[in-house]
Amino acid sequence: MESRVRRGTRPLLIGVLVVTGAIFALILAFYMLPPPHLQVPEIQPVVRVARVADFPVGTSRMVTWGARSVLVVRREELGFFAVQGTAPSDGCFLGWDPDALRIESPCSYVVYDLDGNVVEGLTRIPLQRFRVFERDGTLYVTES
Among 2.102.10.10, 2.40.37.10, 3.40.50.300, 3.90.480.10, what is the CATH number of 41-143? Predict the structure, then answer.
């Protein structure tokens, strides 16, 4: 009777050790390879915008970088620029007018030039600029 009990516990012990090893391996994998959604966007040095091939001339993209919004515009073949995506006076999302080559706030009717300076409107607060660079065919934005 006693030998049958010992034989029955050996597979149970092996199973417990295998499960414990698998759990330990998973914890180690999560520690070594954190997924992107666990990264804090506010402290990332850059934000990915798009592949350059997917960003036509004369268009704009709005990207989020933590709590910030960034408006990225492709004016020419190799001409990219980026400014804050919300108006500093009212927090309204800004839009790009490709015909007039200017940035506009549809809420307060403030108009900005390509450098983020106020051209028309009741405010004089310029837009924050961001540096745009390309690496391996992908466009990135970082602080100026």
Answer: 2.102.10.10
